[in-house]
Protein 1
Amino acid sequence: MDEFSTSQETRMNTLAISQLSTLRWSFAEDANAYASRGFNGIGIYRPKLEDFGLDRTIELLAEASLSVTSLSWVGGFTGSDGRGFDEAVIDAMNAVRDAANLQAGTLIVLAGGQNNHIRNHARRTLCDALKEIVTIAKEFGVRLSLEPIHPGCGDEWSFVNDLQSTLDIIETVGSPHLGLVLDTYHVGMDEEVVRWLPDVVPHLHLVQLGDARHSPLGEMNRCLLGEGCVPIRTILETLREYDYNGPLEVELIGEDVESLSYNEILDHTKTFLDQMTDRVEQR
């Protein structure tokens, strides 16, 4: 088997769906539906984990042969969600322990909104929090991934909006246990994203695939993969060129998919990914 075939096989083994895509389903419905379609991974949403229970989750995922590509999310260290700094850090440390028990590929971090802080203060607050949390993450063997969020739909979630800012924070914290999530919905419509990928890949823990018919504005609104403006094929080809072999996790939420059943969304997603994989392979 040649090197590309090995890489492609690894990638196929880590195709995942985020539970945010099937938010109204139970945990068991998620696991059964994903596994029955040939997905091998699941992006876990913490409220669903809390409702279902950690021990039951571990047992269910073993039965379904699903690996955990991500646990989502921790953060809000700037106080933008009403919690204090210490409370948000303690919550993140608890999530690190859950991620370790789940053998999750990464624990996703959202910085929090700027929350009337000057930007430099918000950045220092985030870096201070990450330095505390990576100490625990190292102890438990967990990787943290900072996710840049498009300012058009996520100012209250994160003041970190682009790849350069994300890489700068990773460099400041200086831990191999901190990397990033690249969500194509949030950064994929930036014409510079492909140029940034060679710098991003060494720090990249997870790629989340999302598409949209226009740049994010207001509520998050993703469309079915391949029906929007995000150059998914180009991004995947570039990631392959620079040897990204990590998980591909799909997240689909918003008005453009609300009229579709979850079964329709999952079926379309699997077909799209299978076709896209073939095209990338033939390039």
Protein 2
Amino acid sequence: MSVLMIDTHIDIPWEEKTAEGLPSWEKRDQTDIAMREAERRFTIPKAEAGGLGAACLAAYTPQGPLDGVGHDAAWRRAQAMLEAMEEMVPLYVPGRAVLCRTAQEVRQTAEAGKVALVPVMENGYPLADDPSRIAHFARRYGVRYMTLTHNGHNLLADSAVTRQGPEEAYGGLSALGREVIGEMNRHGVLVDVSHASRKTMMQAVECSTVPVFASHSCVRALCDHPRNLDDGQLDALQASGGLIQITAMGPFLRRGGGGTLADFVEHVLYVIRRIGVEHVGISSDFDGGGGIEGWQDASETHHLLAALQRTGLDDAEIQAVCGGNMLRLMEKAEQKMSECQL
């Protein structure tokens, strides 16, 4: 059985912050994306070796000050990272990878034996207070999803994890955050609730006209971590048609860390039993802290496929979990965007 494996959250290596504590916008050379023996966990040769057919590459922006200087740095950083993604394919992996904007392009690229790369954003911080920037990121760079927050509240919403400041800023979404979700729906950008607070996540489900998803989170009933989704949140995803993409982050899989591939599969099976196989997928968070025993880098992705096959899931269920569910959600976002353009 041929299975399209889609990893929905991988970071690209980048310096975190400047000496002044601002998000760094200086470009990092991406030459090592073409190397089999590289420190980064995701490279094209590693993906080829592991049978990973597609990956969502995240332009990640660490949370910084909510002022003009911080927002300008975040805006510059997000664009620099997305431009680096554009440049690295023709420069370093021509003929082996393709930057894709649609679900159909992902399928066609995988069928051609190449690795599909989908540009996405982690943290809505670069938007500042300007919802129109969603259109820019979607049209100019082909961004297909954005997490509303990262670790810390921004102008859009409350985060699940705060390192300083109050526990809540808005009690979920801000008025601006609700407006941004409307823009995301109009431009085919999926609403990603990983990193969002519980209130933010539940309000996003109600606010969005396209099902929301969590690109890299796990199950709170199995591991009580604030970044994980509880049963009520899973039920809300089911009701809305959304997804949770279980992630290979040890502390999210097992309290205290040390999560393994067996733990990962148990989180997948929990979601299937709770809300159905059509609401779960896979992600690694490689090069953003992810990597567990049995799935340490993209070259070991075939270990995950084998582990899922050993659970007794049938071929259609395996296809759904490994990538079919994510493609279906992308298509829903594309359909909504088309409707808005009529």
